[in-house]
Amino acid sequence: MANEYLLNENAEVVVYGVEFLRRLDKLLPQFEKRRVVNYLEWCWFFKTMLRDLPDPFALTIFKFYKTLNCRPSFTSSGYIMTF
Questions:
Q1: In angstroms, rounded to a whole number, what is the distance separating the alpha carbons of residues 27 and 32?
Q2: Separation between Cα atoms, residue 3 and residue 7, nearest integer Å
Q3: pLDDT digit string, tens, across residues 24-67
Q4: What three-state secondary structure class fits 38?
Q5: Which residues touch 3 (CB under 8 Å, ≥6 apart)?
């Protein structure tokens, strides 16, 4: 369950990755909303559902993302894909 936070107009918020947000703000309007939603859904699927696969499957996915020039890394909870 997600946490809900209420902020007043004077609240200070620290944002890391400001340049990323600026680029994202320019990039998103170039695509249909449905396409962006589909992309996010598939990213969620791969990151949450496939990370717990047995090693032979995880290794296949690792190699797949490596060919796409993503940045796969291995953690104690499995392979994590960075886009």
A1: 11
A2: 13
A3: 999 999 999 999 999 888 888 877 776 677 778 878 877 877 77
A4: helix
A5: none
